[in-house]
Write a structure and sequence with these properties.
This protein is of the alpha+beta class and about 130 residues long. The chain has helices at about 5-15, 55-65, 90-95, 115-120, and strands at about 25-30, 35-40, 70-75, 100-105, 110-115. The N and C termini lie far apart (about 40 Å). The structure holds tetrahydrodeoxyuridine (THU).
């Protein structure tokens, strides 16, 4: 699957975002080692602090289906012209599973930026730091 195809799945997922408070719709598409793809969107709540990001939705869906070998994660924000960078909580969640995962962020004009999780979260705290 090309980067554009993965971002396109993230874009489709952003249309399912439940974001009545922020009006900021985000989608994610997570590719696993076996080629399977899990999508996610952000899900907000009237108790604002309970909002769940698109990236974590996708990762939790994958883990709950038995996948942990995350290879690439596409992200798309429907309500900005810019690249939508993942929040700190999501970066930490990614670091739990694969510091070498590629994070591909798409912009509405079709441009993409690609990062490694280890560059998005330098000196990350990971399972390897636990005794
Ligand atoms: N959001 C994400 O889904 N992913 C991020 O990495 C950043 C923020 C969502 C959370 C909230 O629903 C909305 O965007 C505004 O912060």
């Amino acid at each position: 699957m090309t980067k554009q195809e993965l971002v396109s799945k993230a874009k489709a997922a952003s249309q399912n975002a439940y974001a009545p408070y922020s009006h900021f719709r985000v989608g994610a598409a997570l590719e696993c080692g076996d080629g399977s793809v899990y999508t996610g969107c952000n899900v907000e709540n009237a108790a604002y602090g309970l909002a769940i990001c698109a990236e974590r939705t996708a990762m939790v869906k994958a883990v709950s289906e038995g996948r942990r070998d995350f290879v690439r994660l596409g992200i798309y924000c429907a309500d900005t012209e810019d690249f939508g960078m993942p929040c700190g909580q999501c970066r930490q969640f990614m670091a739990e599973f694969n510091l070498d995962m590629e994070v591909i962020i798409g912009r509405p004009d079709g441009e993409t930026q690609t990062y490694l999780v280890r560059d998005l979260l330098p000196q990350a705290f990971t399972p390897a730091d636990l005794p």
